[in-house]
Request: fold
Amino acid sequence: MSRVVVEKMLRDNRKSTFGLQITSMVDMFTIMLVFLLQSQSTSSTNITTDQKLKLPASTSTTEPIEALRVVVTEEAIFVESEKILDLQNKNINPKDLDPKDQNLASSLHQALLVHANRSRDIASKNETVQFDGHVIIQADEGLHYKLLRQVMYTCSAAGYADIKLATVLTEAK
Amino acid sequence: MKKRRPIDLTLSGDPSFELDLAPMLALMVNLIPMLLITTVFVRNMIIETPIPTVVQEAIKKDQQDPKVSITLKASRLNGFEIDIDQSGAHQKMSIGLSQNQLNYEELHRHVVKVKQQFPDTFSLQFEPESDLSYKEIVQILDEVRSRKMGDPKLFIVDQTTNQNVEVDLLFPKVEFSNIFEEG
Reply:
């Protein structure tokens, strides 16, 4: 670059500092702040879902409560975060079912009984806690009722008779 | 007596000033990431489905004598069937498939009619077939649970005041009555 050009540039840009116009940025941040504050959940309990799990959409507006979670994906059944049994083509493997009762999933029943006994044990020692048999079933929307029925039946047999189905909130049509 | 000096009300210099937005910006830069992390964008809800266990059923029968029992059967082959049992007298309604799909709109219309007929009944026995998907079951539950925009108004009589009270609920207490069936 020639010396003349450099000198001309220096002459034109004598002022080396400049004021940053941040008003529009503050406007944008204010809108974002209001939106985020509005969408903050006030519920004391939140359900976290796995990436592989797609919950069905519902217009139900009942807030989730604190309860035992049974997660049914297309591949396996979990109690809380513990994997209990693997599924075979979105169904319970016949060898995992009770031979005397084809609706009862034995390993799931055992796992639920452990949780139920633990809750009952805590309830017997702490008067403020009581075992109410609440269970939240988080199931994938593509699963068939046959499998859900077996899960619900097993929950009921283990003492969890108050079943709640987890859904994703959608607008009423 | 001293003579007061007149107050000069004319403004001298530039009356405008620059607002320093930097602290506000700093506050927002901190707040926004925090809120972005903690905000729940997909809100999960629950549908209550109490199961009629044998004991619960017996207690219920002992405590109250339900005059009407409404059963909804859903099947992918035959559509919906509503069976109303009023002290032994049966009334049946069938809702066929529409273009090989379950007809949810027609189901809702029929359920509203049933509700108009029996405004004091809030529970419904639901018997879906095994091949129905969970998504379809939840959609059926949505159709039978509450009124939608454009539905006729529904009223129940308040026993204490003897006045009509408008209700938005149809059959919010849905029980899966075929859970204990074989197979």
About this structure: Residues 52-59 of chain B have pLDDT under 50 and may be disordered. The longest helix of chain B spans residues 22-38.
